[in-house]
Amino acid sequence: MRYGLALFPGQGAQHPGMGADLAEQSTAAKAIFDAAGEAAGFDVLAACRDSTPDELARTELSQIAIFTHSLAALAMLKERGVGFDAAAGFSLGEYTALVAAGVLTLSDGLCLVRRRGQLMQAAADAQDGCMAAVLGLEDEAVEQACREAEGVVLPVNYNCPGQLVIAGERQAVDAAAERCRAAGARRIMPLAVSGAFHTPLMQAAAAQLREFAEGISFGAPEIPVYTNLTGGRLLPDNLPVHLEKHMISPVRWTVLLRTAIQDGFTTGCEIGPGKTLTGFARKIDKGFRAVPVETAEQAEAASV
What we know:
The protein is of the alpha/beta class and 304 residues long. Helix content is 50%, strand content 17%.
């Protein structure tokens, strides 16, 4: 079985118990969890399985957990003969896509994501930042609300039509959210993350990540990778600088998926916890068929 896009979720998709059935039913998936444990210095599978929602929401744990779970699900799919023609990931998921495309080795990817999570957690602990999804309002209205609010608050995740995430200093996010409500937003939904990601508040962490990434070898993509930094195909030039910009720039997911569809892709698997990207795909283009693959049962079904 072959699909067009391998789609990998980002932070916020984590939940207790994730990945346990993959490790039980797939030798390849269990090997991914074992490798992650060695790289991280703790039992990642046990953390995915047994942590509380609050523990998993901490960036230093959630990023390595989601990254590992997604690669374990991908390993089971490959074990069952499933292939992909391109890859893309949402925020953190772009790192998973880089491993899936052969740009990063599993070991280097694990080390990079582990460091990224630590740096972002430290930045989050140093400031009172947050993120919230604004539902049912045009992007332009959300952008205007952010411009009018005092303090640091920016539109950061362009998820799909009618859904835009804002992030920044907590008081500024609250003020922008109130403006969005007044403008007719259907709902404001706080996100299960611990900081104001994809904003300039992450600048120091992003610079440190670039320095760390300069010590890692990046390969040429074996399959195309679509990046949410630009919404287009990744150009494998100076990836440490790309990853620095990626941490402090908006996630242009709507543009990314539309670009991939224009390039001829019509199917995909959301590989990892949750089915958020599958929902986004339906709202971006009803002609694009995406299926979620989080569990061993779903991996089996996707291989038929």
